[in-house]
Amino acid sequence: MEVKEIDQVMEKYGSDPADILGILMDIQEKERYLPRETLDYLSKKLDLPMTKLYRMATFYEALSLKPLGRHQIHVCMGTACHVRGAARILDKLESQLSIKAGEVTPDLNFGLKTVNCVGACALGPVVQVDGEYHGNMSALKVERMLKKYSGSENKEAE
Amino acid sequence: MVNITIDGQQFQAAEGQNVLQAALDNGIEIPHLCYHENLSSYGGCRLCLVEITRGQRTTLTTSCTYPCLEGIVVRTDTPEVLKARRLVMELLLPLAPEAPQIQALAREMGISEQRFTEEEADNCIRCGLCTRACTEMVGAQAITFSGRGYRRAVESPFGEEAVDCIGCGTCVYICPTGCIEMLDRGTQRTLPKWKRTLELKKCTKCGWPYIPFAQIEFARQRGQEPPAADWFDLCPNCR
């Protein structure tokens, strides 16, 4: 991340200690992770110990120190989804993407994660991609769903 | 000052002071592992549980985080309190099964066998004394908690060398389980847990390598009263 961009984010928030989370989340959204250099820069600029930034970065699920996928797939493993076969959907996703839950595909297009409930039990089993809900999922529908998001990546590349 | 009752005895305590300190000041023992009088209360070890009655309500709560308020009644030895504390201790024990202080405390509380096991026990009970001492007492802020829930651990940032560590050893002395090692070999001090190695300065009189250069630098720059220029030339024994 360019120093200029970081400064822009910081301007939005000022340098109050309570604003750190906002700054980190904005950087996370832009970069899909918190680059080490950015944290080093922030630590100097805000006169904060690195321990504080590291503690926050590892505490919050919304923040990541490793790059996440362009499309983050959250497979709901809550009770309702679980009994309707969430495990099968996860299996299918894992084999389709050749990654395990918690990992990111080598091309950084997809990241796969399990969550314990997305609060949409009536739609179960639910898979959430980039905040978009895919209800009544089945292993059969997984391929089509993935195609949709692989497509948007091609568009981005053109 | 407010009036409080602990185990049937009347005491006066400063308003807002934590109940644990008030009890200790008056000679009433409450077991605790994450509390230190010179550090902020954390309420992490849960061992100092007591029963506190305020008005009509009685709650089981940590005495280190509960402020002394007018008229509260504290019980430190009801069967419920002892039972709850024993369970807490049983859960702490597998985290640091080899730590003498933890074993002694467990024995004292009447725990003779270990009911729970922890596969990845690293002797750290996550009491946070080291991180708070490093932040509040020393001010170096070199180590911190990371993660959340069962992944919580004490670490240097990114698990790499703790570059802000001055090698003072405060974390080593304050750790109740002794899980932080500090090794002095020749003129080098190593803290393996923080992946930190520092050069030691020798006493000009007896030649004992007794203090890391980083600590001297830190004391000069950040100390409240910068010591005299030649203060660190002699070790405490020769001063």
Tell me what you see in this structure:
The complex is a heterodimer of chains A (158) and B (239). Chain A has 2 domains: 3-59, no CATH class; 71-157, Glutaredoxin. Chain A is elongated and about 50 Å long. With 158 residues, chain A is α+β, with helices and mostly antiparallel strands. Chain A has helices spanning 3-13, 20-31, 36-45, 50-59, 79-83, 86-97, 139-157; strands spanning 71-76, 110-115, 127-129, 132-134. Chain A has 7 helices and 4 strands. In chain A, helix 1 (3-13) packs antiparallel against helix 2 (20-31). With 239 residues, chain B is an alpha+beta fold. Chain B has 2 domains: 2-108, Ubiquitin-like (UB roll) (Roll), CATH 3.10.20; 129-233, Alpha-Beta Plaits (2-Layer Sandwich), CATH 3.30.70. In chain B, strands 2-1-5-3-4 form a 5-stranded mixed beta sheet, with helices on both faces. Chain B has a 4-stranded antiparallel beta sheet with strand order 8-9-10-11. In chain B, strand 9 and strand 10 (196-202) form a beta hairpin.
Radius of gyration of chain B: 21 Å
Amount of helix of chain A: 40-55%
**Cα distance spanning the termini of chain A:** 22 Å
Biggest sheet character of chain B: 5 strands, mixed
The CATH C-level class name of the largest domain in chain A:
Alpha Beta
Strand content of chain B: 15-25%
Q: Topology as H/E string of chain B?
A: EEHEEEHHHEEHEEEEH
CATH topology name of the largest domain in chain A, in short, is: Glutaredoxin
Q: Count the strands of chain A?
A: 4
CATH architecture of the largest domain in chain B: Roll
Major sheet of chain A: order of its strands? Answer: 2-1-3-4
Q: Outline the biggest β-sheet of chain A.
A: 4 strands, mixed
Structural class of chain A, please? Answer: alpha+beta
